[in-house]
Amino acid sequence: MTPCPVEPSRWWQEPLVHFLVIGALLFLAFNWWAPGGMGSSRIVITPGQMNAITEGFARTWQRPPTDQEVKGLLDEYLREEIAAREAMALGLDRDDAVIRRRLRQKFEFAAEDAIDATPPTDAELQAWLDAHPATFTQDAQVSFLQVFLNPQRRGDSIDDDARRLRDQLSQSGAHASIEAAGDSVMLPHDIPRSARTDVAQQFGEGFADALLALPVHTWAGPVRSGYGLHLVYVREQHTRRLPALEDIRPVVEREFTADRRRRQLDALYAAQLGRYHIVIEKRIVAPGTAEAATLPGRSPQ
Fold first, then answer.
1. CA-to-CA distance for 172 and 169, rounded, in angstroms?
2. Of residues 131, 168, 127, the one with CA closest to residue 147
3. Mean pLDDT, residues 234-256
4. pLDDT tens string 129-167
5. Handedness of CA 104, 109, 110, 112 (dihedral sign)
6. Residue 283: alpha-carbon gap to chain centroid
7. Domains contained in the chain, CATH given
């Protein structure tokens, strides 16, 4: 029996060959369009980019660049562009915390266009002020004169000395000569208008609280501090208060606008997060220890 002639294989009709050809075409297309690939060998410098380069030089040096300086600026820009493309082609931008933070900043700057930038109304600012009084409440403030009495120097006679000196000072009121009165101490005699917290840092909490309870325009005391005793003349005193909106409008507007931006960025990230499937892998734990908790909304794997 004569065997039938075998027809030569038509390899180009094989499905595997088709798959390999399509794969090769896709690989070439990816490398052509990918940053740093074969198609990225073309660097285009637009007139706008050239203007930005030369204007940056002019802002720094307060004059336009010469032709030679323009060439140097252009060379530097090209080096930066080439380095960036080649570094990305090598994957050097991956897993770099500095680059990731910079990309996040640029992303959020780009998102500014989608963020509401309309100026807030007075009603919105007043509502914000009413809802955050602690942020804007001004500390109590006081200005005063003080004369120091040293307990170690005066001993048991300090109370009598304080009463006698207070009576003398009261005769002249705010115009009393206090530079030579009392005992020497490394503290100013005349304290200008200061916040309560500043007074407390210098004289102590107890002194600051007692000072705010004294009457104004009269010599009083003695008031105890960490240094000793003080005779005090309170010139002006202002309790803690929440200022009116018209007095602090720029501050309230700044805080309101910053909070609105934060909330809108949070909403943007929440919307973007919905496009991703987040997987948190279980970590290997030692026997007898509690296994890491799974975050809500994330699927362990």
1. 6
2. 168
3. 85
4. 888 888 888 888 888 988 888 888 888 888 888 888 888
5. positive
6. 33
7. 47-109 (no CATH), 120-135+245-260 (no CATH), 138-238 (3.10.50.40)
